[in-house]
Amino acid sequence: MNEEFHKLTETWVGKLQYGEFVGNEWFGVGGPNHPLIQKIIKEIQEIPNINVFDVFITGGILEDWITWDLDVILTGGYQPKHLIKILRDIVKIGFDNHIYIDVVFKETLWRIDLMKPEFLNEDKSWIWEYSNIFKKNDVWIRKYQFYPENGLFKRYNLLPFKKHLDKISEGYTYKKPLQIVVKKEL
Length: 186
Hints:
single chain
């Protein structure tokens, strides 16, 4: 990706709700070096106790297309007392900056960049989210079975998605996740 691509910004006006957060104006951006994404990364890195987890950016923001969300994954040991606040803080950062942050916790990171057409790198695992409410223009979007657990919402996740398999079968190679916080050993 060239520097011009990283500066691309598009806008969308529409209502998104995630948990108690509601926003109406959104940005789509061209890459992880976009100034707004760099600002968001810095804000995430400043969250108290964030370094009890490894934090990665994955998904479309790393790829060769405009994306309308920022996929963030926290990994490490399951610590609900820290997770509730940190997941909420990350969601709030997204709404404050008009980029939807799709943030989850899972114990280990699945590496889409290691998938090849001849090797199906499956991941079947539990993930935890801050809320089970996600609406676009007042219409429910997520149709997962959530299980409330310690103030969070747990769901079973199977990767890769069909969209991943389609891209890989077309010869696309996904980028390596970008680690933005390294867990501090306590």
